[in-house]
Automatic annotation (TrEMBL), chain A:
Keyword Signal: yes
Taxonomic source organism: Dongia soli
Protein name: ABC transporter substrate-binding protein
Cellular compartments annotated: Periplasm
Pfam family, one: SBP_bac_5
Ranges in coiled-coil conformation: none
Sequence ranges assigned to domain Solute-binding protein family in this UniProt record: 84-430
From TrEMBL, chain B:
Coiled-coil intervals: none
InterPro entries in the record: BPD_transp_1_N, MetI-like, MetI-like_sf
The keyword Transferase appears for this protein: no
Membrane topology classification: Multi-pass membrane protein
Protein name per the record: ABC transporter permease
Chain segments annotated as transmembrane: 12-30, 99-119, 131-157, 177-195, 233-260, 280-306
Main location: membrane
Alphabetized UniProt keyword annotations: Cell membrane, Membrane, Transmembrane, Transmembrane helix, Transport
Location of this chain's protein in the cell: Cell membrane
Ranges of residues in domain ABC transmembrane type-1: 95-303
Highest taxon of the lineage: Bacteria
Length: 519, 314
């Protein structure tokens, strides 16, 4: 018969283990309830919709505040009603709306009214407020309030991006007038004074975690599935991938360089999703630089670059070639490029232009994909006799090299790899290449009066077909200048547990509050 | 001793002031306009100008330096340009986490490295000394980021024993300890080898000294000679090294903070440099310089306390 032989040493070891477990805490999964753990690519900095610093802020604001309308999730860009019960464009400059009744603000700030809508939109449009999103309301005249729940948005002139980006975007979010007026300067950063959306912030531990919980005062209709969403700011994509694999996250974006690995190895309890992004990446040439002033030289360089090889090297085959700066699915997307890879023609044209033995410098952001892209471009250009020196730069330096106000580096800028992200309206792609942007964000120093006129007309044209033709023409003008070679719109990829049903916009941006459980 | 301490303290203060001045000047020389980076393409020139004024960038550098030091004397490190949070709050949040990481990393390295070095010296040229030597060199040669990644893959991803990211639940001591294990292991790994080699070398030197031979002649037990007499002397250079190492680890903790997504000075300083967020950059750098200088000072004072000869010359 066995007897329990408990020695002093066993007792001490057992006690230590018990204390250890108590310190560590039991596995928390069983106690979490419906909690979603998700990665944000950066920590929040400013949740005020008039001053959101990046998508990392906006993705949180989206769950806290309502707009009249919101972007649809799914595969096609579009909008649907949110706080508005009725909304209608009665003529090119008037939009009438009626709010749902009973929408409440948290912290005892009463109901959401048309006065709040007027305050929010006019605040962004007011130059004294200095919102970076003032251009979203560039043609706003005022908002007329008819009664507690209804009003009319009055524009000075038609504004095509109103329905694609302004109303469903950051500038269309409604803040509480009463709560804002109590704040110094009527501004806030990370402490939102009142929320109306499905979630509210329970706790923010800077650089560690933001916890969202259900807003008990939310009466907006569609309810959120998760009781709590834990948002972890993880800047490094690879760190996020490891966190997902170790089950610290339920959903995260993954890098395109990891996409193939994940696909190949397959994860039993996870699903990968890919989306075409809206951003656009291009190879640019500073047309005012003495070495690149001749359009024939620029055109020859365009032809010397094998874009498909560049993309294979930089994105591991996960990104397709762009035909312009407007992504597929948006008004104004172009079907094909005008220039194609033709090294023989490039050699001949360079010879004809007397540019044999040309020496140039290619500046780009010091990130793995850019370095790979730059190396292929360097090899392509070497093949036609152009000697390229690579200049990788840190983000702080890179984003000012073409800016006239930041010094004289713009004069030495020759070749560059550029990337801009954008909202789902073509005007946000073309806005940075107008003549007034030369030396600001137009570092190729491209300037075309015809392009500028088309851009202005495109903002006011409400017929999508006519508008589309304008943007196609603008991209043709850009490409014909020789200063641009369109590379890609990139792609986004994410991975999530099979138990999660993610809610994503067509470009893969997460709409946190609409995440649910998989059937 | 007091005079020595006072002199060392004055020197430490001077080092702090000079380092901050140099860094301040470097920060303003590097290219990159913070207003363009912060406000993005949608900012109007007026907005950028307003931010430039708010950041004090329009003033000559000596005026900016003067304002920085005068604010510093009032305990004001300025305000984060983008989130409007006081920099002192950011320092208070991040610095303790980095310090704890560095203490733990160095702590476990010292706990293993010093006895290992001591044992190695006593067992000079025997098989176990050679094995320890091989392992020590291997540990020194392994880059810390590699240790971090493999530790993550093994203990977090494959075995799922330890968390991969974060610093643990605020207020939950146990959780914070668990989150500390992998990063501390990663940054301390190479130091086990360093310390073991250093202690072995100094111990061998001391064990050959006359007073140790006398002790043996008097018939004192070997363990007493080793631990009470030899190690006390041999550990002096190790203390100095630990002081320097701690300061060094504060800055090298940056890779651990990025790989393990652990909030800390390194991660925040890197983000501040990339966005040219000067107040945060200077606040975090200043705090790191201060801690580094203090560690060196404490190490010097400890050595002086143990060895009176040191006090004679600064």
């Amino acid at each position: 018969m066995k007897t329990l032989n408990l020695k002093r040493r066993h007792f001490l070891a057992g006690s230590a283990a018990t204390i250890g477990l108590g310190m560590v805490g039991l596995p928390t999964a069983w106690a979490e309830g419906k909690t979603l753990k998700i990665r944000n690519y950066a920590d929040i900095q400013n949740l005020d919709p008039a001053f959101n610093t990046a998508q990392a802020d906006a993705v949180i604001t989206d769950s806290l505040l309502l707009g009249l309308v919101r972007m649809k999730t799914g595969t096609e860009w579009g909008w649907e009603k949110e706080a508005a019960e009725e909304i209608e464009q009665v003529d090119p400059t008037h939009v009438r709306f009626k709010l749902k009744s009973g929408l409440k603000w948290s912290n005892g700030y009463g109901t959401l009214t048309a006065e709040d809508v007027k305050y929010s939109f006019e605040r962004v449009a007011n130059p004294k407020v200095q919102s970076p999103y003032i251009d979203d309301w560039a043609t706003l005249d005022h908002v007329e309030v008819h009664d507690e729940l209804s009003g009319t948005i009055v524009l000075k002139e038609p504004f095509a991006p109103l329905w694609t980006t302004t109303l469903p975007g950051w500038a269309g979010k409604i803040v509480s007038k009463a709560a804002m007026e109590k704040l110094p300067d009527q501004k806030f950063t990370t402490t939102m004074p009142a929320v109306s959306g499905p979630y509210m912030i329970k706790e923010w531990v800077p650089k560690q975690r933001l916890t969202l919980v259900r807003n008990p005062d939310y009466t907006g209709g569609e309810t959120a599935y998760y009781d709590q969403i834990e948002v972890y700011p993880i800047e490094d994509e690879k760190a996020a991938e490891i966190a997902f694999e170790s089950r610290d996250l339920d959903f995260t974006d993954i890098s395109l360089s990891s996409l193939k690995t994940y696909k190949d190895k397959g994860m039993q309890d996870a699903t990968i999703t890919e989306h075409p992004a809206l951003s656009y990446v291009w190879f640019g040439q500073n047309q005012e630089n003495p070495a690149l002033k001749d359009p024939k030289i620029r055109e020859a360089i365009q032809k010397a670059i094998d874009v498909n090889t560049v993309l294979d090297a930089a994105y591991f085959g996960a990104a397709t070639r762009a035909t312009g700066i407007i992504a597929p699915g948006l008004v104004g997307h172009r079907e094909a490029n005008l220039t194609n890879f033709d090294p023989d023609a490039a050699r001949e044209e360079l010879k004809a232009a007397g540019a044999e033995g040309l020496k140039l410098k290619l500046s780009f952001l010091n990130k793995a994909e850019w370095v790979a892209a730059a190396q292929v471009i360097q090899a392509n250009l070497a093949d036609v006799g152009v000697d390229v020196t690579l200049e990788p730069l840190d983000s702080g330096t890179f984003w000012t090299i073409g800016d006239e106000k930041s010094g004289n580096s713009w004069k030495d800028l020759q070749l560059l790899l550029g990337r801009f992200s954008m909202n789902p309206d073509p005007a946000w792609a073309t806005a940075w290449f107008t003549c007034k942007q030369v030396g600001v964000w137009d570092w190729e120093r491209f300037c075309s009066k015809e392009y500028d006129q088309l851009h202005e007309s495109g903002l006011r044209e409400l017929d999508p077909a006519k508008r589309g033709e304008m943007y196609v023409k603008m991209q043709d003008i850009m490409e014909k200048s020789g200063s641009y070679l369109f590379l890609t719109h990139e792609a986004t990829a994410a991975i999530y547990r099979n138990s999660v049903a993610p809610a994503l916009k067509p470009d893969g941006t997460a709409v946190l509050w609409r995440f649910g459980a998989a059937a | 001793m007091w005079l020595y301490a006072l002199q060392r303290f004055g020197m430490a203060l001077l080092v702090c002031v000079l380092s901050v001045t140099v860094l301040f000047c470097i920060a303003y020389v590097i290219p990159g306009d913070p207003t363009a980076i912060a406000l993005g393409p949608r900012a109007t020139p007026e907005m950028r100008e307003a931010l430039r004024i708010r950041m004090g960038l329009g003033q000559p550098i000596y005026m900016q330096l003067y304002h920085f030091f005068s604010s510093l004397l009032r305990g004001d490190l300025g305000v984060d340009v983008w989130s409007n949070r006081p920099v002192i709050d950011i320092v208070k949040e991040t610095l303790p986490k980095t310090m704890i990481l560095a203490v733990t990393g160095l702590g476990w390295a010292a706990l293993i490295g010093i006895p290992l070095g001591c044992y190695s010296a006593v067992r000079r040229n025997k098989l176990d000394d050679r094995i320890i030597g091989i392992f020590s060199i291997a540990m020194i040669s392994t880059p810390s980021f590699l240790t971090a990644i493999y530790a993550l893959l093994v203990f977090a991803v494959t075995l799922n024993w330890l968390p991969a990211i974060g610093a643990g639940e605020p207020g939950n001591f146990g959780d914070q300890v668990v989150h500390l294990i992998l990063p501390a292991f990663a940054i301390g790994f190479a130091w086990v080898g360093y310390l073991s080699r250093l202690v072995r070398a100094t111990m061998l030197e001391v064990l050959n000294e006359t007073h140790i031979r006398f002790s043996r002649a008097f018939g004192l037990p070997e363990w007493k000679i080793t631990l009470k007499y030899a190690l006390k002397i041999a550990v002096l250079p190790t203390i100095t090294l630990l002081g320097m190492a701690y300061g060094g680890l504060l800055s090298s903790a940056v890779f651990a903070e990025i790989i393990f997504n652990r909030p800390g000075v390194g991660q925040s300083a890197l983000a501040a440099v990339n966005t040219r967020n000067y107040p945060v950059m200077m606040g975090l750098t200043l705090s790191t310089i201060f801690i580094f200088t203090m560690c060196t000072l404490i190490a010097d004072l400890l050595v002086a306390a143990l060895d009176p000869k040191i006090r004679k010359g600064l």
